[in-house]
Amino acid sequence: MQREDSEPMSENELIDLAELFKVFGDSTRIRILYYLYNGERNVSEISENLGLNQSAVSHQLKILKTSKLVASRRAGKSMLYSLADEHVKTIISTGREHIEEK
To answer: CA 8, 3, 87, 11: dihedral to nearest 10 degrees?
Structure first.
C-alpha cells in the first residue's frame, strides 16, 4: 500500500530515508547509477567506462545492492548489474531536473 506524502513518517522511516540519501552522497556511486540508467552492464564495462579499477567498482556495487538501488543477475560467467527498479530512475531523473532548474 502506498502512503500519501502528507502522512507523517515514523522515526525509523526517517532514519532509513537519511541512510538512503547517504548512499547518494558519493560521486562514484552516482556515476555508477547514472551509467546503469540505460541498461545493465558487467563490472568490466563499468570500470572501463568510468575509469575506475574493478575492485573499487565491485565495492561500490555491493553498497548499492545492499541499499536496494542495484540488482544483479548471472549471465554465463559474468554478473550483470542494473538499476533495481523504476524508483531509482525517478530519483536520478528528479535530482537531475532539480539541479538544472534556474
So the answer is: 30
